[in-house]
Amino acid sequence: MRDASPQTTYLKDYTVPDYLIHKVALHFVLDEERTEVTARLTLSRNPASLSMSAALVLAGENLTLQRIILNDGEELAAADYVQAADSLTIYNVPQQQPFVLTIENTINPKINTALEGLYLSNGMLCTQCEAEGFRKITYFLDRPDVMATFTTTLVGDKSRYPVLLSNGNKIAHGELEANRHWVTWEDPFTKPCYLFALVAGQLECIEDHFTTQSGRDISLQIFVEPQDVDKCAHAMQSLQNAMRWDEAVYGCEYDLDLYMIVAVSHFNMGAMENKGLNVFNTKFVLARPDTATDSDYEHIEGVIAHEYFHNWTGNRITCRDWFQLSLKEGFTVFRDQEFTGDRTSKAVKRIEDVTMLRTRQFAEDAGPLAHPIRPEAYIEINNFYTVTIYEKGAEVVRMLHTLLGAERFRKGSDLYFARHDGQAVTCEDFVKAMEAANGVGLVQFRRWYSQAGTPVLTVSRRYDSQAQTLTLSISQECPPTPGQAVKEPLHIPVKVGLIYPDGTIAPCQLQGSADSAEEVILALTEAAQDFVFTGLSSEPAVSVLRGFSAPVKLVMERSLTELAFLLSHDSDTFNRWEAGQQLIGQAITGLIADVQNNRELRLDPIIIEAFRQVLAQPWEDLSYFSLLLSLPSETYLAEQMPVIDVVAIHTAREFVKLTLAEQLQNALQTLYLNNHRDESGCFDAGAIGRRRIKNTCLNYLCALDDPALKNWAHQQFKTAKNMTDQMAALTVMVNNPHYARRQCLAEFYQQWQHEALVIDKWFALQAASPAPDTFATVQALMAHPAFDLGTPNRIRALIGAFSQANPLHFHAANGQGYQFLADQIIALNTLNPQVASRMISALTSWRRYDAGRQALMTAQLERIMSTEAISKDVYEIASKSLA
Ligand SMILES: [Zn+2]
Q1: Mind listing the pLDDT tens digit for each residue in 327-354?
Q2: What is the pLDDT of residues 796-823, one digit of tens each?
Q3: Which of 107, 224, 253, 655 is the least crowded, having the fewest Cβ atoms under 10 Å away?
Q4: Residue 242 class from Cβ within 10 Å (0-12 exposed, 13-18 middle, 19+ buried)?
Q5: Strand, helix or coil at 27?
Q6: Distance between Cα 266 and ligand 1 center (Å)
Q7: With contact defined as beta carbons under 8 Å apart, do 719 and 697 qualify?
Q8: Among 198, 115, 187, which Cα is nearest to 154's?
């Protein structure tokens, strides 16, 4: 519930804790409605604290306190402590150090719909403690810089809770009267309480093992509900791959004897890296070829790896405070991106990550919620698990990697691990380790941590045929963001390559340097700088920001002809794709203006020719090939417009798709047929590539009003032996007029009604459709028996997909989409504030739309603000959106 005025927490106010907790012994008697918690804490005053007489203030919410005992002696009298809604203060702390404090309280997991602390999911008890959920379990110093060793005993009914799990190694277990049993777990590594976890329920386990580089044998266990045991093989394989990769690339070895993963169907986020006991959203564990798509498989491997990598970057070394969240998340996202690139296709992975960054993070950076990767203030920390902290945070680590090179970056990470193992540290400590290991200074680079907003690089060039030089003039500018009017120049790595008109690589030799290379990393540190390349016998085409070497917007004037040239000749896979996207993007931008002015639409033949050439070439990486053939998304196109016009964007983009399909029909048909196999689906690059290119072709072909081609989709739907193909076919049938649309949707539901994750896809697909009846469909689906506001995955599938992946219908001019979303946010505000506040993002960017839509969107934001008992989560995002 909302305080009278929600409190803001500031980074500048950080002080060390007044007390330290060294040892925690937890004892749980588990019950759905009344779980008894006994916490025995060994504490002492923190010698680093300035206030050696401070009272002990523990955080706690929604707890029923039973009693408090000091030093195993007498119970504290009511006069010895003060209990408030969110804290417990004990004044007369013993002189003797350390001392023992035992607190007994009860909690009710059943009514915990916020899914923080201890809660119930399909009869299973589980926890989520990051960021501040542990205070909903017991009174504690709930902050990441208080690190303790934990011993946890779980007592429960043997039939309801045959499996009892917590962090660390299982050290004892036994039977009790009344059909109960108990298990004790011990985690020898100190950790902050946000990494605590417990799970209890009727779970099946699949087991394997891993031998570490030093020869230790680790037992690996995945726990799922009984019906899902046949969907764990890929997750297990992914875990082993991640363990091997982390040893090879970072020298990081796993430390406990046991690594457990539990899949839970009610989960606010993706997954949680609790020490030795990861808790996962089922979406990122369960996969069978007939139930999960190739992209599900890839996400599972990426998320399993991400949480595993946290064991070193997050658990062994954690954050001092939550402002440092990007220390663990930025670095770990960078690590999982590199892992996935190594496992699949580096080119494809980079393109997908950049696409996500540019559509979602750039939008955040340009809006009212812009914040640096190390924010200065928050009201509710749950609101700061953002694309900026994660994805831009990863880009900042990537830039360090680019500037230092792989070898020196590794020296830096080795030093970081050696210096800080077992500590709670800051982003500053990470940068210092990179500096110290390599004898470099990164003073200016630090601005990336404190400055919000997306810098704009403007590049111009001048070729001097007499001197045989090329001058690149690069300037940087960052627009103001809330609270940061003035921006300082950043240290930006700009990777550049040059290509002669005959397609050969031109040498990159900077004036005054003896080195010549195929590409060069320019260090842009000033507001404007010139870089002169020498020894160029003719004017080369310039490939700038290769591999997307910095999270910036690039402005550079280039003709369609030059872009078409780069699309066929750039040796950098990212920039080659980027040239194609620029080419088609420019064309669509022109067509959007034509739509707005009621002009006849015509696609420039140069675009058709460029696509024809791409189609004519032999491509080894078929996934990359399919990205070259893909159009920029409506969301990405919207980001490029000063005032977003969703109808014009949709109309122009559909026109381009249809025209390309008409003009290239034969080539697309051949490509489809050449790659269409009856495969049962397997996660190998060749098969994934074939499915991807084939389904890209199908998507074009079904835009054509041709019954024979529509039948291809129908046939593929009926005969598909894997979810990728079945889903791709159903998607084109739902997104285009199709004779079998209703029938196939009904069949799909019949077939998969017992597979929750597949039914999520069924909801999302309909919610994101451009079909004219979508809004009515979404309303009807809200009343579907399979819809449930208590399941975050289902909320994201229906409400999330409609508001975030269907710009055409969500932004309907009459405002019905906005009103619908606000209704759901208000309903979720009390049920699950964390999920509710995430849904607001669709309204946050209201300034980007026309006056009519602005008025409708702000009216709904104001309605949300006037909700009774508004949560801190929702209040913070809604009020900042309006500010
Ligand atoms: Zn993470």
Answers
A1: 999 999 999 999 999 999 999 999 999 9
A2: 999 999 999 999 999 999 999 999 999 9
A3: 253
A4: buried
A5: strand
A6: 18
A7: no
A8: 198
Q: Are strands 124-128 and 9-10 parallel, antiparallel or unpaired?
A: unpaired
**Ion ligand 1, residues whose Cβ is below 5 A away:** 329
Q: Which long-range contacts (CB under 8 A, 24 or more apart) does 526-530 make?
A: 526/489, 527/475, 527/476, 527/477, 527/489, 528/473, 528/474, 528/475, 528/476, 529/473, 529/474, 529/475, 530/471, 530/472, 530/473, 530/474
Amino acid at 4: A
Nearest-angstrom CA–CA distance, 457 and 480: 15
d(CA 479, CA 497): 28
What value does the CA radius of gyration of the chain take, rounded to a whole number of Å?
28
Neighbours of 324 (CB within 10 A): 28
CA distances from 300 to 536, 743, 753 (A): 47, 31, 22
Q: Given pLDDT bands bounded at 50, 70 and 90, which one contains residue 367?
A: very high
329 alpha carbon – ligand 1 mean position (Å) = 5
Q: What is the mean pLDDT of the chain?
A: 97
Residue carrying the six token digits 């954050």: 319
Residue 4 pLDDT more than 60?
A: no
pLDDT at 2: 43
DSSP-derived 3-state class of residue 112:
coil
Hey, what are 303's tokens?
A: 């998320």
For residue 465 the two structure tokens come to 């045929």
Structure-token pair, residue 130: 């990051």
* Helix (H/G/I), strand (E/B), else coil: 563: helix
Residue 736 φ/ψ, nearest 5 degrees:
-125, 155
**Chain mean position to CA 334:** 11
**Tokens 């077992």 label which residue?**
422
DSSP 598: T
What does each C-alpha distance from 568 to 504, 507, 643, 699, 874 come to in angstroms? 12, 19, 33, 24, 48
Spell out the alpha helix ranges (H) of 392-446. Answer: 393-404, 406-420, 427-438
Cβ contact 364:386 at 8 Å: yes
- Backbone phi, psi, residue 486, to 5°: -110, 130
CA 332 to centroid of ligand 1, rounded, Å: 6
The pLDDT value given to residue 1 = 41
Residue 3 has pLDDT above 70, yes or no: no
Give the separation between CA 543 and CA 529, rounded to whole angstroms.
17
Catalytic machinery residues = 307
